[in-house]
Amino acid sequence: MAQTQDVQQKIGALEQQVQKHLQEQKPQLAIPVLREIASLDPNNVNAQANLGVLLFFQANYAEAIPHMRTALQSKPDLWRLQALLGIAEKRTGDPKDAQSDLERAFSNLDDKKIQIEAGLELIELHSASAQLDKALSVAAKLEELAPQNSQILFVAYQIARQMMDQSLLSMMVAAPDSAEMHMIMAGELARQSDPTNAIAQYREAIRLNPIVPGAHFQLAEQLRTSPDPALNAQAEDEYKAAIKVNQYDEMSWRQLGGIMTAKGDFKTAEEDYKKALALQPKDSEAKTGLAIVWISMNRTNEAISLLESAVNDDPTNLVAHYRLSGLYRRAGRTADAQREMDAFHHYQDVKDKLGKIFKQLGGQTSQP
Amino acid sequence: MSCSIRPGFAVVLGMAILGLCVQAQHAGRASLQPMVPQLVDITASTGIHFKHLASPDKKYIVESMSGGVALIDYDRDGWPDIYFTNAPDVDMQLAGKKARSALFHNNRDGTFTDVTDKAGVGYPCWANGAVVGDYDNDGWPDLLVTCFGGVVLYRNNGGATFTNVTREAGLAGDTMWAMGAAFGDYDNDGFQDLFVSHYAAYDLHDLPAFGSMVNCMYHTIKVQCGPAGLKGSPDNLYHNNGNGTFTDVSKQAGVDDPQNLLGLTAVWSDFNNDGKLELFVANDGAQNYLYQNDGNGRFTEVGFQAGVALDENGKALANMGLALGDYLHTGRPSIAITHFSEQYLEVFRNDGNLSFTDVSNISRIARATTHVVGWGDAFYDIDNDGWLDLIAVNGHVYPQVDQANIGINFREPGQLFLNQRDGTFRDVSDQIGPALKFPRVGRGLAIGDLFNDGVQEVVVENLEGEPVIFRPQGGPRNHGISLELAGTRSNKLALNARVKITTAELTQTDEVRSSGSYLSQSDLRLHFGLADQRRVGKVEIFWPSGGIETLTNLEADRFYCVKEGAGVVPCASIRPTSAPTPK
């Protein structure tokens, strides 16, 4: 009993030394003291945990791991410690235990900084073992935590690219001659600003499978944005073909509305936009399109209401802000017009900044 | 005094001349006239031989932008003469070689004579555009040429020669790439001020290499660099001191373009009929400027509030040529602006109080103009029915598109849209004969009654090759009336005087303007189509000085010369006849 008291007293004295060293920011002096405590009392959770942490931050992961494990055996809800354990295991070549510990800790951490650190480590483990769905799930949680964090955004981008590559590889192996494979090729060509060959690939996809989902719509988009008037003229039929394949193709209805507006067929345009909105009532672009039709038909008040709804659904909708500003101005609602114009300028600035970055990415300009 | 003209004039050669007027011959015509006049290429018969220089590859944007044309009655004989600008390419310029601009004198018989050398206007500079004004208010129209490297002001010495007075006038400090220019008396002091818009800050010794960057690509084709990515230059307003000199007041007036946008055509007009001139500046790839005249020598830029800065969806377009016209008979000038391909010819309806609506789509203009690169344009009553139609010439900037197989061509047809009298236009480009549809690389365009027969010709300067003169033939036999104005309290050329004419059927308005179209100058005389009306009940003239003059019961198919405060006068009395006093 007396011996136990002596040990406890000694431990108490050692703990005071530890406190002193830590206050003086001398962890290297605290470590041997903590070792002594742990040897005197192997079940001392505080000593084991603190020793593990101090060794971790000394980059002595191998020695830190057993102390952290011991502490966690006694007290499993030390989530920060478990996260550090997972990181240490990762850095000592034990990815399996590392993933297990980090996964367990990640969902329970309440410190944002540590959660981000643990999440990023976990994503590395998932990506390395080709568990991209898990990596994406963690990245999504991190984006929620820190939406402006460039490191997280970059990691998410990398995962998406890896998933794309993985899907492409799978497609190349499983169905190299499929319509879908040609759609992938077309999409890549379009991204590389090669619309001519993209159009050819979409046509090939449709030849192989006339009802392959999305092919008619994507082809129509390429045709619509081509500089060639002859190709532009073919877009309408492709949107119609897309709707024939899938009458619930909301975006095709919307684009048809735009084509009919440009042709001056406002009645048909109105019908098309209404069909789009019946399928997707929150489609800000479709609302804007329909509002433009109504402006052309002198149904100004209806157009204003719809544009107000459009900017509510999508505050970044530049066209809706600009159109709304014009309608307010003509209605004598100067303050409202100015507010919408200010919103327009704000989002235009954002868009311009994005545009400059896209250009640096190697995008093509279609106009001077 | 008036000069009689008749509709349906067709034969110009051998025309008899009576004093300063013309008794145009009424050519016999078949009874069946097509409802749409045919635009006929009469260039060959005019004897005009001129070739705008152009490098074949247009490796630099500066080689794609020249080509303004000016109608200037420099000898004040009542017959419009023609000035074509010219520009070298970069290699020529660096080698010290010059391009010859040209002045063609109207021989009053359907032909023109090259008088460039005698007039002394052949080598102003790397010439982009040309506009007409009367900076010394002596009644002799002067010529302002915009240059890659400033402006050149040619003072009219009295109807035969010009003197380069750029330095004496205080304009030599302008050394930037000037494109648009317009004379206008913005402070109503009786002297014409001058606005000059500038394009990019561009150094011929440090040129962006062809196809070298993302801004040097058109779709997938390597092309000249710009205008995207080019740094722009500010604009200048020069106040006329009334003594033959100008003072730069750009900053204090608030029109100096601190954003350095890429300025092209500029026009003065009283858009809100308040007696004070507004200034409209078309900017390439950016918002247009509409400067409201505050009346104290200052302007407020109201383009966004007025709805003319961007297109109807808030997109900045490549604004190039400017046409102004009251095509709806509202008494207010609307604006039509030409643009790049995959954009459209934009029509801004003037709703009054400096509020405009982009009606390009509902006017049926947009769709027809989406695939061309538009330059010179004008509201132009081709059939004299009293309703302004719209004409535009087109032509790409990149010759490389011809090899790219992307469905567009370097040379493009011109277009004509007939006013349907309900706010819409009908594309009749396919119905007016082959001449306008012939593919060209169009740039400047000017409208004027070259032969004083009540028929307005269209003069087009092309970037490559020879200019074209179109003359409408056939169509309905409508009547017209033309007015030549002279200010007394107002500036002598009566720039920005507004005229409102009323017949039993219609009320029309127009304004005398310097500049317009693309870097060009149309006839300063105003012409109104009258349809089948043989008489104009009332003509109201709103002089820049503030005076309003009313004329009544004017017979159609005549030219009238009107002097401020004196009504209709003999034309000789408003035209200077002797050389101005040397200054």
Q: Class by helix and strand content of chain B?
A: mainly beta
Share of residues in helices of chain B:
under 10%
Order of helices and strands of chain A: HHHHHHHHHHHHHHHHHHH
Radius of gyration of chain B: 22 Å
**End-to-end span of chain B in angstroms?**
33 Å
For the sheet with most strands of chain A, the description reads:
none
Q: Estimate what percentage of residues of chain B fall within beta strands.
A: 25-35%
Count of helices of chain A? 19
Shape of chain B: globular
Question: What number is the mean pLDDT of chain B?
Answer: 93
Count all strands of chain A and give the number.
0
Q: Main sheet of chain B, how many strands, which sense, barrel?
A: 5 strands, mixed
In short:
The complex is a heterodimer of chains A (368) and B (583). Chain A has 368 residues and is an all-alpha fold.
Describe the structure.
The complex is a heterodimer of chains A (368) and B (583). Chain A has 368 residues and is mostly helical. Chain A has helices at 2-23, 27-40, 45-57, 61-74, 79-91, 95-106, 112-128, 132-145, 150-174, 179-191, 195-208, 215-224, 229-245, 250-263, 266-279, 284-296, 300-313, 318-330, 334-360. Chain A is elongated and about 100 Å long. Mean pLDDT of chain A is 94; it is low at 364-368. With 583 residues, chain B is mostly beta strands. In chain B, 5% of the residues lie in helices and 34% in strands. In chain B, a hairpin with a 5-residue loop joins strand 32 (457-462) and strand 33. The two termini of chain B are 33 Å apart. Mean pLDDT of chain B is 93; it is low at 6-34. The interface between A and B is large, with 38 and 39 residues.
